[in-house]
Design goal:
Elements: E1 2-7, E2 13-18, H1 24-34, E3 44-52, E4 55-61, E5 75-80, H2 91-107, H3 114-129, H4 162-175, H5 184-198, E6 206-216, E7 219-230, E8 234-239, E9 252-258, E10 264-268, E11 273-278, E12 286-291, H6 298-313
Parallel strand pairs: 1-5
Antiparallel strand pairs: 1-2, 3-4, 3-5, 6-7, 6-12, 7-8, 8-9, 10-11, 11-12
Length: about 325
Amino acid sequence: MTIIEIHFCDKSVKKLVASEETTVKDLLQKIEQKMALTVDLDSFALYEETTVNGLVIDKYLKPDDLCPKLAAGSKFMFKKRFFFEDNSANADVTHMEFLQLRDDVISGHYVLCEREFLELAAIDMRVTYGNPDTNKHKPGFLVDADLLAKYIPVPFLKQRKPKEWEKLVLDEYQRIAFDPIDTDFEGKLRYIEKLKEFCEDYFGAVFFEATELILVDKVVRDHIPVLLAINKVGIHTFKKPAPKSKDLPQNMLIRTNTFQEILGWAVHPPTKTFIYTVPSDSEEGLKFTFESEVAAEMPDLCQSYVQLIIQSSNPQDGEGETTDE
């Protein structure tokens, strides 16, 4: 028997006992019991998280597989694999969704303007500290405790001096006090609702670090660093900023293809390549090609969303049938 550490999006850790026969599903059930999760359980998953060339890579672990031995520098992460159901009536699931969405906001995965992420930061402070107290929440409260990184997205953190960011966050914290939030649960719901309002098309996406391959006559002409986002709408491609660009330091949405228009997808495991096709004047359609350490996981996630869409559209017709390349 061994002790396994399970990490969560708020940096907390829980320890579980496992044996050589323990499956990923066994671990998931233990975690769900510890976290009092009782609904939408299929949307949660276990990942092996590692860092490759400075990029965080989450490898999805299939439930029926035996719990793997972690490579050096890796850790187990418990997260939602997809956002589909409305869980606003369940405080425990809402809490998990809030933690993950907040983590993606701070990581810079969501494209937000300053006004938007400051409002989210203020709501987050309300969840953490309750209503603002001018005697306590004053200049120095965030800077002295080195807390700014918890509220300002990574791409923006160095765009202003710490004291400037602190003033903006605290001012917004005071402003939202005029629209009362009575409980932590209400605060988490408001955070989720606001993020959905700001980024409706790709809200709740799973994000993948990838490189888009630009092919001309089947020859790779360029490699473009991108962030792929897959959610219940479809596949969204964000171009990552150049390292020394003078433009805004965040990703830029360059393409959205809905599941209704996507003709199919495929993966080539040896080259870690994911491909999907949309209609075009060509009989073969227009293909988009991406390299990623976790390319093999993308088709299964797309298929899961399509199945959920079919089931929600035809709840009495079973799972339905879909095809992919």
